[in-house]
Each structure stands twice: as C-alpha cells, then as structure tokens.
User: Fold this.
Amino acid sequence: MRHTLETMGTVASIELPEGWSSELGAIAAIFEEIEQRFSLYRPDSELSRIACGELALAGASIELLASYSRALEWRSTTSGFFSPHRPDGVIDLNGIVKAEAIERAGAHLQAVGCPSWSVNVGGDILVSPTGEAQLVGIADPVDSSALLCSITLSGSRLALATSGSAQRGDHIWRGGSTELTHFVQVSVAAADIVTADVLATAIVAGGPEALDDVTGRWDVDVITVDRSGALRASPGLLRSLVTNAAA
Amino acid sequence: MRTRAILGSILASASVLIVGYQAGTAVTTSNGSSISLPIGGTTAGSSGSGSSTSAAAPAATGPSDGTYTGASVNTRFGAVQVQVTIAGGSISKLDALHLTNADGRSVQISNYAAPILRSEVLNSQSTRVSNVGGATYTTQAYLTSVQSALDQAGA
Assistant:
C-alpha cells in the first residue's frame, strides 16, 4: 500500500504492506519532529534560532548537536566536499537531516517488525533489509519524466541517494565557488541512506576527483551524469542493473 | 563496438589513475607485449562526449588472446598493477587491479566508475519499478515526476 505525505519541502512516498498503515502516523511524527528542529524555512525551529543568534550552539539540544557532529565528521572524511556550513557561515544541516529522517523512519519500521517497506523522501530511497529485493529507477536529469536506468536494492545496497542540480538549481555549495558543477546528477547506492546521501553530495561538489576518492574508499556503487550527458558507473552498479529479461 | 567500449572503459579506468598520479606511463606486460595507455594529460574524464571509444583507440589494434599481467607501476601513492585476460579479441576478465595508497592501505580500484554508454543501461529503463530516485524534488516538481505517477498507481 502506497502512502504519500508532504514533508521537508518535498513529498515522501512510503510503501507499507497491507495492515501496516497504522505506522504512518509514527513516521509522520518523526518527520515533523525533525523539521521542527532543523528547518531553516521555519523561523521558530531550533536551527533557525541558532542561525539568527537567538540561541547559542552550546545551548542546543543533544539531538541537534549529534547531527551537527555527524555532519562535521563527514566533512572531515570527504575532505570538505560535504559541509554543514553555508558560505555565509550559517549551520545548515539540510544535507544530512533528510537522510537521517529516512534512516529513523526505517529504524522505526524495523523495530515494529514491518516485514517489507520502502521510504522515499524527495528521491532518496531506503528499502527494508527484510523482504524481497526491490527495483528502483533513477530519474534522467535531462527529462524528469523518464528513467536513466533501473537497479536492484538488496543486501549491502539498501539505500539510494541522488544529488544534483537537475531539480533545484545548483544548490550544492562548492567552497563559495560559482563555477558550474562537473556532474549534473550523481546517484550513490550504499548500505545506509546517510552514507549514500552525503557521498552523492560530496561527488557533485567535488567532481571527478571526489568520485575517484569515494569509489576507492567506500563500499558504494555510483552512477554519474555530466554536463554533456555522458555517464560513468561503477562495476557494481552495472551488475545491479535490472534487465528486462530478468524482470 | 561493444568490445571496444569495454576495452576502452577498462583501459580508461587504469589510465585515469595512472595518468592522474604519474603522467606519461605505459604498462609493459610480463610477456613482452604492451598495453598502451593514453598519456599526456588526456584522461577519459576530459573527453567531452564521454565516449569510451576514443580512449580505446590505442588498444583497438587487436590484442592476442591470453592473460596479460601489467608491470607494477610505482606512483607516488604506491604500486598499481593490472591483470587482463583477453579471449576472442576482447577482455574477458580483469584481476588484481589495485592501488596501495600512501597509508599502505590497499585500495580496490576495481570499483572505479568508468565511462559507459547510454546504450549499456538502456534496457533496464522500462523495467517495472515502484520507486524513483532523483535529485531532491520540490513538492511542485514532484507532481511532474515519475514518482508521482507511481504513487498514484500504487495507491
């Protein structure tokens, strides 16, 4: 059974088995709590109050500090390609909180024993470790109504995150640089959604150099689309491609 | 064409690493033949078309069947070594492709994201999927997305 709800400026699509719709409320509550804490579009959110100087970082909640700390760790491990700081110095955890929201929703569904599910928030997808492998498509950045390819999510590839400039303009900060990004779309499949999301963002921000670094150091699969429309894919991603013959 | 594309992808993978770390390297194989790698600043990443066939050009003269173990090439990050098995004029297997980084950790560069042609992913496109990944769409963009259609179909 498919459910949709608007959250975090986008739409969440949640697939639950028959009889599990009652969990939707808990998931909506998780998303609402996260939005209320981290949204910079809500002037009364905790993060907005920190941004405007009303609240000191030292006085922030454990939850906010935990996300900030996690984002800073990712900044270190990605050599700064991923960063929780806006060029104007404001802490913006947008790059990680949506993935954390998906992660928490998934953890909730596993904790209550939901046998098979998928959570898709704004094009970032996490599927259940239990149940059958799930087929997911990746949108074509040139035409959002078409697919670039379809892959299988299962095992050590339960999460698929996509970053790019196709849908929201060049929203990824690149050290204050105004140059166009090399890649217009980067999709990363990983075991968990935060890793997938952060690394997809890092590759868009860091270009080919970051792509090589990421595929060399992390157990992930990647497919990228550059400005000319040319594709690059890791061998694992090609192996996970769904073929019509197999479907 | 397919062979050239694969050969190109693999050689491009190796060449980008080698060119990236030590410009101007040719790999001489253990049996005396050599595998040419594009050098002189030409990397697969800089070919605007993204077509891997251009990178394949030096090697497209028809390699003999057999297993070719590339010489260990020292780069400032450590040793790179490639073993390629060629059968029927095309690469059938690629082994022991590794790089040791400055920390002495072996890095599996077999996970390198190589250029591919759209035709290589084409036949996966129309497979029935229930979810679509894409760069974050706003609620407005969602309405025109494939996901929106899928959600309506699955409701």
